Amino acid sequence: AQSVTQLGSHVSVSEGALVLLKCNYSSSVPPYLFWYVQYPNQGLQLLLKYTSAATLVKGINGFEAEFKKSETSFHLTKPSAHMSDAAEYFCAVSDQGDYKLSFGAGTTVTVRA
Amino acid sequence: GAVVSQHPSRVICKSGTSVKIECRSLDFQATTMFWYRQFPKQSLMLMATSNEGSKATYEQGVEKDKFLINHASLTLSTLTVTSAHPEDSSFYICSARDPRGRGNEQFFGPGTRLTVL
Fold it and tell me: Nearest residue on chain B to A38, judged by CA atoms?
């Protein structure tokens, strides 16, 4: 079964600063990879996904992630943080032959004015 | 994009009662739906995979008789928490897979906050 590790349970950035959230997966075969965002008491919204196409994936709200097979990583970045980016972020992985998603522990992002 | 709804969004019940939560795919037919449980400040834990017209597949450690799942149509799956107790209080989230999509993407409902008194 796939597993995913998110480094850092909490990230604090200043408004306008770079946001970097780290995600590593365990698999010898490139899986499907996802980043989701969750606001308090809400469901999950997809930010972006990697499905074996371009390794640099652009998502909504200015986020992007790069798939690096050699590092088994799929880190999420945003060049300039906005106050509205404060939320919980989850990295998820899925085998290509299995519809289940395995989620990381999540990273809480706070944005300082 | 694909939309998934959940009802109710919040429910408070007495210990020993049963609670039903509905999950609907609004603009697509979902042959597969998933039910998750999320405790405060924690990640999502997959409880079961719901397949239309067949029995749900439960994850290890999830009580089948406690959490009844029915996927009677291509747009509706229900989770019934039977004889609920305070330890069942949690945030329950459903998701649905759009078979038209690529890459196993799941679309999530807004969640249901269950509080058992």
Answer: B110
pLDDT value, residue B53: 84
Burial label for B114, CB within 10 Å (0-12, 13-18, 19+), is buried
- For residue B51, give every residue at least 6 positions away whose Cβ sits within 8 Å of its Cβ, in sequence order, or none: B31, B32, B57, B71
Closest-CA distance, A100 to chain B, in angstroms, reads 8
In three-state secondary structure terms, B44 is: strand
- Give the closest-approach CA distance of B54 to chain A in angstroms: 16
Reading phi first (left if > 0) and then psi (alpha if -120 to 50, else beta), residue A90 is in beta
Nearest to A12 by CA among A76, A106, A107, A92: A107
Residue appearing with tokens 């300082």: A112
- The CA radius of gyration of chain B, in Å to the nearest whole number, is 13
Residues A10-36 have a mean pLDDT of 92
Question: Within an 8 Å CB–CB cutoff, is residue A66 touching chain B?
Answer: no
Q: With contact defined as beta carbons under 8 Å apart, do A75 and A59 qualify? A: no
Q: How many CB atoms lie within 10 A of CB A61?
A: 12
pLDDT-based confidence at residue B68 (cuts at 50, 70, 90)? very high
Q: Does A104 touch chain B (CB under 8 A)?
A: yes
